[in-house]
Each structure stands twice: as structure tokens, then as C-alpha cells.
Amino acid sequence: MAKNQDSYQCTECGWTSTRWVGRCGECQAWGTVVERGAPKLKSVASSTPTDRAMPISQVPSDSARRKPTTIAELDRVLGGGLVPGAVVLLAGEPGVGKSTLLLDVAAKWARTGATTLYISGEESASQVKLRAERTGTVADTLYLASENDLGTVLGHIEQVHPSLLVLDSVQTITTAEADGAAGGPTQVKEITGALARIAKRESMAVIIVGHVTKDGGIAGPRTLEHLVDVVLGFDGDRHSGFRMVRATKNRFGPADEVGCFEMSETGIVEVPDPSGLFMTSHADPTPGTCVTVTLQGRRPLLAEIQALVTDAAGNPRRATHGLEGSRIAMVMAVLDRGLGLKLSTKDVYASTVGGAKVADPSADLATAVAIASACTGVPPLERTVALGEVGLAGDLRRVPGVERRLVEAARLGFQLAIIPSGSRDVTQKVPALGRMRVVEVPTLAEALTRIGLAG
After folding, report:
1. Binding site annotation covers 99?
2. Does 93 carry a binding-site annotation?
3. Per-position DSSP letters for 271-307, written without gaps between them
4. Which of 34, 151, 390, 398 is the most exposed place for a label (fewest CB within 10 A)?
5. pLDDT tens across 194-226, in order?
6. Is 92 annotated as a binding residue?
7. Any idea where the domains of the chain sit in the sequence?
């Protein structure tokens, strides 16, 4: 029997098509075009519920108490630990260390006496054990299996009865109950749904490894993120050992926390105080450097911005690393037009230290200070931190989270903080600043004067 003319529809925007396509022609979303199902039922018969509804104040919550993973940085992102029955999706680029991190999580979970099951769809059990021996993550109650069939995975769960299941990865598992190849939208949706159901039924925490696309998004249908309880992103620069775990969705805790790790030869380790990774120690004040405090979620991190300005041999070059090129161009235009720094004939290079990626507008002032210092050859005042967003008129705008930023700078021994005007009512409420002097300035020109770069 022939199908109707528009038998495929996008679940995001409702766009219809006569054939299936991987990308919606209207909203450009991937994996959202599905075949229209059977005609809707006219009526649905009611059935007797198994459990009666009760007032929320009487619902027992003991079975949903979270359990720490004993990895403080991961617990910070999760909101204190794993909740029984929760499904966590951890996504990241190949080689970033997802399997190494989760093997460490599984081993430490097992060492508390809890049964843990690690299912690998990409490596054999022997290969996983080799990595476990190298990283010191061998535990007696940690069970390994290499499977690619969902039914067999469910069978392992029934035999072992784990309190934690790690599946690496969801794109390698298939089921005969769904169409398509491994990693396809239908397969991924069916497998994740099945694991979510058994996790709730058995009060078993589940961590699923997910792949990402070349654009950095989570591979698979968008409904994958709706099916799970927590979505974590694991990212970092391959050329540096620093890694970050970010929560983009968390039903049981904050969704703006960040955990810091470092990849080493013996595995992955926590970095409870990562600010030192993004700074260099100078014996004497150095031109072209300035320190700022960024916010990664709710976590303040110090970052050092360096700049180099030289005479251009031909067309001027602008190169950035770890900073947004558009914001650097805007700051340079303000310095050139408003402060008289002739940067239009100069090569300008701006970079962060330690591979940090800074997209916070509060780093505009530190960027301007670094470029102005490199252009004039005059170093800024020692132990100074600069915060503020630079406007096109050369004014400084307030930034959020000034309290946390200043407390972090004071803890690390900075003596002077340059911040935009209008923040005094905030800083007066922070008693932990110690001897650090906080100076408010309304414009970029005055900020450079206070830092010692202009007369």
C-alpha cells in the first residue's frame, strides 16, 4: 500500500518530507526526522495503578540518597555523587580520556564494597584490564565484559546485579528490536531507553559514554539527552593534560559546575586548585602580561593573558590562541581609536597560558592591559588582577560574580584588583579580601593609568 505524500516529520519543528533525511530541511537539526506512526487511538482505556499516589511529603526518599564516587571533582559536578537509578551521559572527543576516567570511577566505586559492572563495546576485556593495571584501577568487585548486543548486556546485569553500570559506549551496542546500524538514531534511542528503564527498576546508577560530532555536539538524536538524567561534557586540549568535566543538564544538582582533571602517564588525576596551571611565574614584572579571573560555571579560575606587539612586515597579522578573535579585534580598535595606540601597522599576537580557553567578556580589560603593555614596553604593576568588559566607547561594564572572583584572587596573593565602577556595594560585602586593594575605574583609560601604563 502506498504511503501518504508527507510520511516523515521533524520532531523539533514539524517540517514534513516525502522521504527520510538525516537533517531537517527547516531547523537543520540532525536525527529528528522520523516516520509518522500509525493513526492515533481514539480513546485509551484506564487501568488500575500498581501504586497509589500519595502526598509528596510522605514519599520515601531514602532509596534516592546519592552516593559519592570518592572523586571530589566529579562529585562536585554531579552535585554530591551518583543517585541510585540515575542515568548519566558522558560525551567527549576521541582520546580525551573518557574511558580512563570512568574506569577510575568504576574501580573506586567497587573498592567501597559495591558491585560494579563495566561493559566495553570498543575493547576486549583483556585490553581493559591492561589499562586498569597501568592506571592502578583493579578491584575485586569490578566485573568486566565485552559485549555489543543489548540483550546480552541485560543478561549480565541480571547475573551480576551491580549498583553501578558503565557502558562504553552506547554507539557500539545494537539490538534486534530496532532498525538501523549501530550508532544510528533509532538504535541509540532504543538502547538508552532500555537502560533507563532497568536503572529505575533496579535502583542502579548507569553511566553511558557517548560520542560527539565534528562540531562538538553529542552524536545521535536530540531525544538522547532528554532520556538521561545528567549530561556531562568532557573536553580539553590534546596538547595539554588539562581536562574539564562540565554539566549541561542535571536533574539532581546544579547544571553549571565544572570539575578539573589532569591526564598523566599513570591515568587521570584530580586538580582541586587549577588556577596555577594557567599562570607563569616571572622573577620580574614582564611587559605584555596581565591576569584575570574567569568563571567556569560557578568556579573562579585565574588565567594569564599574554600579548606580543611588533612592527608589521607587510600586511598586519592578528593571531590568537585561547581567546576569541572578534573580541580581540574590538579591544584593539578601542585602544587604537580611544587611546592613541597605533596598532593598525603592528602585528599583534594574543594568547592564554596553559591552553586555557577564555570566552568570558570579563577578560576584555586584562586583554587590553596586556596589549597596551606589549605596545609600550611598560610592565603593569606586579600582583595585579584586572576584571571588566570593555565597551566600544572605552567604558568598563560590570561583570557577574565579582565576589567569587576577588576572593579567589586574594587567596592566591594578589594585592591590587582593577574592577569597573559600580561594584563597590558588592566588594564591601566580601570580608575575605584581606590586604588586597580594590580600585574602581569607569573607563579603560583610567584603568591603564592606575595599572601604571599611562600618565
Report:
1. yes
2. yes
3. -S-GGGGG----SS--TTEEEEEEEETTEEEEEEEEE
4. 151
5. 999 999 999 999 999 998 887 778 877 778 889
6. yes
7. 1-35, 67-272, 277-451
